[in-house]
């Protein structure tokens, strides 16, 4: 396994991140302690050093088990966890982005993880009640105290991420180094704003659900008369068509559908580090096979075409000939724009 820089930082992290939301049985699915250890050991043996959890995962079990697993090599592993989601029902201050919850949540995560520091702390999602100044100052305070080394943001609109990083730059506070969003062949909407923003701000992108909950492995596919038809994005007719194409291309390339689906997220001109999770060891071994695998251009075009989306306003409007004409005085094709790919 090779390493990538975590966005605008100098931190070296594995090209694949291990997600540990499956560590624990409290949610009615997932892995027991022995299975979780096997998954972790498989990832570590492959050279992985980047592990991701959250205060909320399996009611804290994920953090507890992961802390035990990395204890003997704590300084080797890059440990990421999150705050903002609830730790306790009925008390609104046990959730959210605000400083009180931030400090309490991090303190309890450290206790569960049995560690003195967190390498990467994510905001799990934006609550739209806490001011960016409060959030970024609180995160910077944790970094100043050595409790947190780097910060990232998950499931937050591009305009808010940009505002937070611009504010931090202005005030001399620590900036986000990474962005975590759902991104896969069924969910390409981050291509409108989130991914271009991440590229422009030099944020590493760590897509969650690169297999769309397993849908892209073809597990929901049946024969034409038995296709599953439910009110679900991952089981819609469009989703099944895309999954069928993934399976078809996987067979053609002598690869697994998981290899194709994960690798598709990685073949972009920016830092993409997919978060791969697994309930059992064999699933993780299959996902790890994407290392060193590359999808040929023709097959990439097929996948892009069947999963294409409309980017909406203003993106499509700004790419029309009429707008190009008035913005470039009729000389659009004569202007060599070396920043074109930077912005799109």
Protein traits:
344 residues; alpha/beta; TIM Barrel; 8-stranded parallel beta sheet; two-stranded antiparallel sheet; 13 helices; globular
Description:
It is a single chain. The protein is an alpha/beta fold and about 350 residues long. The chain contains 13 helices and ten strands. Among the domains are: about 180 residues, TIM Barrel (Alpha-Beta Barrel); about 35 residues, no CATH class. Strand 5, helix 3 and strand 6 form a beta-alpha-beta unit. The longest helix is centred in the C-terminal third of the chain and has 16 residues. The protein is globular and about 60 Å long. The two termini are about 30 Å apart.
CATH class of the domain at 3-180: Alpha Beta
Q: What percentage of amino acids are in beta strands? A: 5-15%
Rg of Cα set: 21 Å
Low-confidence runs? 223-231
Summarize model confidence as the mean pLDDT: 95
Helix content bin? 25-40%
Quaternary state, please?
single chain
Which of globular, elongated, flat, extended, rod-shaped describes the shape?
globular
Taken in chain order, the helices and strands follow as EEEHEHEHEHEHEHEHHEHHHHH
CATH architecture title of the domain at 3-180: Alpha-Beta Barrel
Distance, first to last CA: 29 Å
**Helix/sheet category:** alpha/beta
- In the CATH hierarchy, what is the superfamily of the domain at 3-180? NADP-dependent oxidoreductase domain
The largest sheet has its strands arranged as 9-8-7-6-5-4-3-10
Main β-sheet description:
8 strands, parallel
| CATH overall fold name of the domain at 3-180 | TIM Barrel
Q: Tell me how many strands there are.
A: 10
- Number of helices in the DSSP assignment: 13
